[in-house]
Amino acid sequence: MTLRHRLWGMLCAGLVAGDAEAVLPAGGSGTWPLSYLHTAGAAADPATRLGWGLGLVSLGVIAVITVLLAWGIWHRRRVVQDARALAVDRDAGGMPWIYTGVGISTVVLLACVVWTLFTIAAVAMPSRTPDLTIEVQANQWWWSLRYANRDSSRIFTTANEIHVPVGQVVRLELTSHDVIHSFWIPKLGGKMDVIPGQTNVTWLEADQPGVYLGQCGEYCGAQHAHMALSVVAQSPQDYAAWVDAQLRPAGEPSAPDARHGHEVFEGRCAACHAVRGGGAGGILGPDLTHVASRGTIAAGLLTTTPEHLSTWILDAQALKPGTRMPSIDLSPDDLRAAVAYLETLK
Amino acid sequence: MSHDPAFDNDAWRVPVVARPAQDSSIEPRLRKLWETAPGLWGALCSVDHKAIGKRYLVTAFLFLLAGGLEAAVMRLQLARPDQHLLTPEQYNQLFTMHGVTMIFLYAMPVLSGFSNFLWPLILGSRDMSFPRLNAFSYWVFLVSGIFLYASFPIGRAPDAGWFNYVPYTSIAYNAGINIDVYALGMILLGVSTTVGAINFIVSLIRTRAPGMSVNRMPILVWGTLTASAGNVLAVPAVSLAFLMLWMDRRVGTHFFDVAGGGQPLLWQHLFWMFGHPWVYALVLPAMGIVSDALPVFCRRPLVGYTAVALATVTTMVLGFGVWVHHMFATGLPPLSLSFFSAASFVIVIPSAVAVFAWIATIATGRPVFKTPFLFFAGFVLVFVIGGVSGFMTAAVPVDTQLTDTYFVVAHLHYVLIGINVFPVLGGIHYWFPKFTGRMMSERLGRWSFWTMFIGFNVGFFPMHIVGLLGMPRRVYTYADGLGWGTLNLVISLGAYVFALGVGLFLVNVWRSARNGQPAGANPWDAYTLEWSTASPPPAYNFAVIPTVASRYPLWEDRLSGHAGRTTTDEGFLVDKGRETIGTSLLDAEPDVILRMPGDSPAPLILALALGVALLGVLLRAAVPAAAASLCGVLALVIWLWPERALGQIEDPAHG
Question: Domain range for residue B634?
Answer without folding.
Answer: 602-647
